[in-house]
Amino acid sequence: MRKVLGALVLSASMLLVPVSGTAVAASPPHTIVTDGAKLAKIKQAIRAGHATKAQRDALKAVLDKADTALTAGPWSVMDKPSAPPSGDKHDYMSQAPYWWASQPKTPENPQGCPYVSKDGQRNPEADAITDHTYRMWAWDAMYYLSLAWYYTGDAKYAKRAALDIRTWFLDPATRMNPNMTYSQIIPCKTTISGTGIIDSTQSFSQLMDAFALLDGGAPGWTGQDRSGIKAWLTQYLDWMRTSPQAKLELAATNNHGTFLDMQNATISAYLGHRDAARKIILDAERKRFPVQFAADGSQPLELSRTMSWHYVNFNLTAWGRMAEAGKNLGVDVWKYRSPNGVTLRKVVDQLIPGALHGAEAWPHQQIGVFDQSIAADIFHAAAEEAHDSDAAAALKQMPLPAGGDTWPVRVSCFPLDPPLR
Fold it and tell me: Considering only CA atoms, which of 286, 348, 343 is closest in space to residue 312?
């Protein structure tokens, strides 16, 4: 039964529990990135029939995504057509998307070696390795199914989320090994690189909220599942701190370093290591703000890219999620001021002309589509958490995401790595 048809109708099993004729709100979920109290408040408004039109529309969009996920997948790293250099298909593998053969492919040089970088130009060869695409589909499905269960109480969403999670992470026959050793490999090269870790870090943190929502009593999500995913995450976090690839990525000064810090903080928080998570965020403020953000709020490292509009928004997605996770840990990233005087709000406000007027107001290179709407989430975050009236005003005038603005029920910045379908 659909939960949204114009006016929202929900089953009586969720959110508000009648006690002596009085509706009592459920406790907030212990989400890692998202403010659980906000989710609980939205859920209560929906159940009481007081949801805003924006919330009703957003929930419909979320349920549409979740309904699609009910019959898609489950996905596995075992589905890729070939094994990585380890010979073990349980190891995640992808190809660096911006690297291309520089020579004709011949019997003597079948790969066209050496490969050269063409920043921002995606090589379709990379899509032949399915882990990258399936990872996007699977992780998005897990998140939207879990969120749909939280708002509706419909067991089918929770059970499907649990199946997808077990298939990708836990089932011995289909699980992914807890490493990213072979992510974004470059043909013809054998040198170690950390850049491929971005395949994980750009979107993995959304799963911490999915797990946390399911931990709140979701049907089909068992104690064995919870302990299994925590064991997997413990191994993954260790790899993300100590492997040669991770050490290189942690040293990255641009968005790659931001995303890895943010991912490691959210995994640490989910595992209960709150002090460690808090330290990661505090260290990131101190080390990364002065390097990434100029005094005027610009992002020189991202502006140097051929897809500068995408990458300044991409980096701010990481900072938005870092700030959201920080709030749950008692760290207010929005209030942090770098020695050069810059604040996160000032960096966000640099995007307003581009969001309102597109490429004509963006004096930097952006090959491909100029999607103004990708700034919506960080504007929402700035408006709500930093009381940024300029960002709030821009939201009322700029184009919003074509698939619907789901912020009103997500209330967290979402990855800019969209499903490829």
Answer: 348
Instruction: Give dist(CA 184, CA 57) in Å, integer.
Output: 37
Contact 387, 334 (CB under 8 A): no
Is 185 in a helix, a strand, or coil?
Answer: strand
By CB neighbour count within 10 A (0-12 exposed, 13-18 middle, 19+ buried), where does 105 fall? exposed
The Cα-based distances of 361 to 249, 287, 345, 351, 398 in angstroms read: 33, 31, 19, 10, 13
Q: How does pLDDT run across 300-343, given as a tens digit for each residue?
A: 999 999 999 999 999 999 999 999 999 999 999 999 999 999 99
Contact in structure between 269 and 322 (CB atoms under 8 Å): no
Q: What is the DSSP letter of 85?
A: T
The answer to whether 185 touches 239, Cβ cutoff 8 Å, is: no
Nearest to residue 216, comparing CAs of 265, 149, 266, 287?
Answer: 149
Show the CA angle centred on residue 232, arms to residues 165 and 236, nearest 5°: 115
Give, to the nearest 10 degrees, the angle between helix 274-292 and helix 308-328. Answer: 150
Helix (H, G, I), strand (E, B) or coil at 356: helix
Give the integer Cα–Cα distance in Å for 309 and 413. 17
Q: How many angstroms separate the CA atoms of 385 and 332, rounded?
A: 9
Q: What is the pLDDT of residues 244-281, one digit of tens each?
A: 999 999 999 999 999 999 999 999 999 999 999 999 99
Q: Please state the rounded mean pLDDT for residues 87-92.
A: 98
What count of residues does the chain have? 421
Integer Cα distance of 197 and 421 in angstroms: 23
Q: Which residues pair with 115 in a beta bridge?
A: 101
DSSP string, 120-150: T---GGGGGSTHHHHHHHHHHHHHHHHHHHH
Helices 155-165 and 205-214, axial angle in degrees (round to 10): 130
Q: pLDDT tens, 353-384?
A: 999 999 999 999 999 999 999 999 999 999 99
Give the list of residues 6+ apart from residue 280 with CB closer than 8 angstroms, or none. Answer: 261, 264, 265, 268
Q: Which pLDDT does position 419 carry in this prediction?
A: 44
Q: What is the mean pLDDT of residues 8-23?
A: 36
Give the chain's radius of gyration (CA, Å): 21
Q: What letter would DSSP give residue 81? A: S
How many angstroms from the chain centroid is the CA of residue 399? 21
DSSP SS3 for 307: strand
Of 68, 42, 227, 195, the C-alpha closest to 143 is: 68
